Structures are given as structure tokens and as C-alpha cells.
């Protein structure tokens, strides 16, 4: 005899609440550990990573990331020899069993690597840890279907992302649009509830404040039209970023002792580069911060645009694991800043650098992730500027995504 659907819906609602709360715990844990590792690596107490890197000694800038990379490599060598660490998105989509312990340990090693200065995103760790905790916390609910569990795990991943960046709407849309690729009310509603709960729990660390400080400035609605000029640049940068990461990622997950010297060497290169560009270490928040503060010179923007993706590729090639969202976001922000500075210098105009920087970030993120609506909302929530600027970011993101589809379609037609 079939079980009443109402009972399954009650179980599903209970699971949604549990997943949201546990995702918030995962976000809290990842945030606190990350901050501890950053402070230990660069020997500072208060402020953001950029201030810590800038105030640290030249020796510490080099040695800190190198030691962090070596320790992370040692941990991955021990973990990968004994357990499989499958990709998050593929595991959820295929509805395979969740490796709770290996995902949790892997998430901790990701935080260690990123906190010590690696050019990788920190969002991968809380997504993974939240999914592991969510699977554990809802295992006792026996009336859930396999589709219900797929939705819950995707919601856990998106809620973990939303928690660490205090972006509840973007976290929910990440679950629905990036992980599940659906607008179904059941999935979207569950994603909104879990992401909101996770952000509320993690507000103990984030204080529910945007991670970026938006400068007060008089802005013109003409920026919405000007954002379209970013589309070709965003397509080129996003396409190049994706191709570079695909080429850098090893065909098979590295499991040998080579992980230790390889990641230590990548940390050494990062430390040397940070001597001239202290914005480079970490997931990319420092680049976004400087871009919003109009603190980049033309030469610095060009150097960061080239080095950030190259360093990210270097850590991937060395066997490291981490998120790709914020490195691509930072690369797009550097491209936007470079464009604004170039036009302002050459034509004597006064393009608003912070807006163009974030619009560039939205455009590149739309290209790399294939979801312009999610990219524009994510960028807006990171800084929470005036609401109408969402139209600017959406224009840049949709323009870049549309141009990408147009170019891909023409390429496919030509090759056919």
C-alpha cells in the first residue's frame, strides 16, 4: 500500500529545515577555520586578508603559502590513497552515495589551502561539507524519494555557498539553476528556505553584512547601456578562463607524494607574486575590494588580469582542489577595471570604475557558469549597491551570455 503523499511532504519539509540549519553550521565552521588559517599564515589579528598580506614581512609572504600548500598536499596524499573524493555536482546528479567523511576532510584541506593564500575559491568547502552534513542529518527520514534527496543535497550545496558570502537569493538560485537546472516550485522553494536559514545561522560570523563595501557615489542610468560594451571582453575572458582551467585540471586526481612538493611550489610562486601584488593571495575578494575602492592602476589591473587565472591554473595543476566561482569573479572584476581605466585614460571620460568592475565580474561569471540571472544577483548581493544597479549587472551578464551563445552557434554552424 502506497504511503500518503502528505506524510512524505512533512518529511520533506523537516528535511529542508534540517539541511538549512546544518548548511549554516558548515558555513560557520568553514569561515572560522579560514580566518584562523589566514591570521596564522600572515600573522595578523584584525581586518581582511589584503591588510594582513600587505602588513606581513616579505619572508612570511613566501614561506606561509609554501608551508600551507605542503600541509594540504600531505593531507590529500593521505586521504586520496585511502578514499575516493568524487566531484560534488556529478555525485548529486547521478544520485550516488555521499562519501561524508572524505568530503568533510577534503573540505577542511581546501580551507587550509585557500586560507594560506592559494588562488582558489573558498566556496567549494562549505558546499561539500554542507552536503555531507545534510545527507547525514536527513538519513533517518525514510519516506523521501531519490528525487527529494537530490533536491536536498543540491540545496545544501547552494545554502553553504549562500552562508559564507551572506547571499541568500544567490545561494538559492545556485541550487535551483546551477545544480538542478530547474525552476520547479518544489525545488526553488526548498532552495530559498535552506539558503535563508543557512545565512541566518552563519550571520554569527558574517553579521549579515555584504562582504564588499560599496562606495557612495552619484551614478547615471547611462551605465546600463554602457555595460553592453563589456560583453565582448567578458566573453573572451570567460572563454579563456574556462579553457585554461580545463587544460590545467589533471585528467586523473593526483594521489602520489608529488602533491606535497607540487602544492608547496605553487605556494612559493604565489608568495613571490604577492610581493608586488598583495591582492593576488586568496579566493579573489582582495581584488574585488581594491576594484571597488578604485585602487588599481592600469598596470596593476593588467597584471592581475593575467596572473589571477594563471595562478589558479597552477594550483589546479599541482593537484589542489577548490572553488572556481570567485577566481573567475575576480578575473572579471580585473577585466572591468582595466577597461574602465583604459577608456578613462585614453578618452578623458569618467566611467565609474567600481560599477564597471562589478559589471565585468558579472559578465565573466555568466560566461563561465552559463546563468546570467544568477551571476548578476550574486554580484549584486556581494556588495548590495543601489538596487537599480542590478539592471547594469544583468545587462552585462545577459549581453555576455547572449554573445557567447551567438558565437558558439555560429561556430557550430560553420563547423557543420
Automatic annotation (TrEMBL):
InterPro entries: Cl-channel_core (IPR014743), ClC (IPR001807), ClC-type_chloride_channel (IPR050368). The keyword Transmembrane applies. The keyword Zinc does not apply. One of its GO terms (cellular component) is chloride channel complex. It holds the Pfam family Voltage_CLC. It is found in: Membrane. SUPFAM superfamilies: Clc chloride channel. The chain crosses the membrane at residues 12-34, 62-79, 151-175, 227-245, 257-277, 289-316, 328-347, 359-380, 387-407. It comes from the Bacteria. It is a multi-pass membrane protein. Its main location: membrane. GO terms for molecular function: chloride channel activity. Keywords: Chloride, Chloride channel, Ion channel, Ion transport, Membrane, Transmembrane, Transmembrane helix, Transport. This is Chloride transporter, chloride channel (ClC) family protein. It comes from Mycobacterium europaeum.
